[in-house]
Amino acid sequence: MPASYDTLVIGSGEGGKFLAWHLARSGQRVAVVERRWIGGSCPNTNCLPSKNEIFSAEVAHLARQAGAFGVATGPVAVDMRGVVARKRAMVRDLIEMHLEQYRASGAALIMGTARFTGPKAVAVALNEGGALDVTADRIVLNLGTSPAIPGTPGLRDAAPLTNIEALELDVLPEHLVVLGGGYVGLELAQAYRRFGARVTVVERGPRIAGREDADVADALARLLAAEGIDLLTSTEVASVRGRSGEAVEVAVRSGAGTAVIAGSHILVAAGRTPNTGGIGLDLAGVALTERGTIAVNDRLETSAPGVWAIGECAGSPAFTHVSADDFRVIRDNLAGGSRSTRGRLVPYCLFTDPPLARVGLSETDARAGGLDVRVATLPMRAVLRTRTTGRSEGFMKAVVGPDDRILGFAMIGAEAGEVMAAVHVAMLAGLPAAALRDAVLAHPTMAEGLNGLFAAVPAA
């Protein structure tokens, strides 16, 4: 006999698990089907594990620089087994935290692979063996995404690392070749360089961090190059030979000609693919977009009645904090509200050291949209807090409209994510740039630099 629920969530990622726990606590019969990662990718393979190992790399870097702060440490060695063990311990604690939430809420967690057999009907191949037929009045698709592997000749045969395998490496690569100069590639490139590996980043675009303004991306490139990372931009990967973990040869071509990069490991950081194939969405009447994401409206409803989608698989920006907001959208609409995904002001951070944070429009996007903007920048060395820490790399940047409305903010510098949050809140509140220019901000903090930044905004 099939199991019947009020709500079935397929996938246990951020937004889906929050919705399941919420609905179960409100008295509904709720089940979550999860193939492998309890809690989704964020606590297991992506956000938190990567930041855990990145922090270990930062500790190694600071230890090597300790002499500049009057601290004697002696030779510094990195134990990759210890790095991975620390990360795994964190993941175990997070999984147990999630299991406790399932127990406390009453939501059922079914470990297995789901496939639609018809509208509101799902067959689950259980991980422990056997199968379970499930029906539900409401179904929420929280399918997530997977690392994309380009069809470059020889790349798949080389068994390249993705972020998942890279965070399980308990040996230090001799030479890590990173394919992709976006967020994942740059974060792990810097971390492994600080662990002691030689690192080369190959980016097909004209610069790394291609979604950023040129001045921001160029500043980041200078910082990474100064640490000894080789950055090859406007460079295509033609083919790959060998096997990652043993020896590889990466043939590349650029305006300068062709070359072969000899490395020990390859990390592919070339985007992500939605997990929407092979689960029978057509049998449920769920339509896809041309990009393979689930087609939804601004309430996250799919083309099938009673079926919602949440997070990256629905085309939402690929951030855990956006998936959490998707949960709020669906939660409020199920309760009779009218919450929408339109007009969300989404912040994001690149967790290099120093980090890059941005919210709102870049200068490039604002000008491309025909907006009359005023732009100000402030070097981090002008913020007195950096005199105490020695962490003076980078700058702040503000994009302001003619009505003194803050349209965007970017920062590359120590504590960038925390400083950005202050600007983000000001933007949500509709405060003018002058409010941050004249605010009494604590001294000496990094956020105090906002006074100087917004004081530098040209007069309208």
TrEMBL record:
Key words of the record: FAD, Flavoprotein
Keyword Glycoprotein: no
Pfam families linked to this entry: Pyr_redox_2, Pyr_redox_dim
Alphabetical list of Gene3D superfamilies matching this protein: 3.30.390.30, FAD/NAD(P)-binding domain (3.50.50.60)
Domain FAD/NAD(P)-binding stretches: 5-324
Keyword field contains Nucleotidyltransferase: no
Protein name: Pyridine nucleotide-disulfide oxidoreductase RclA
Gene source species: Methylobacterium crusticola
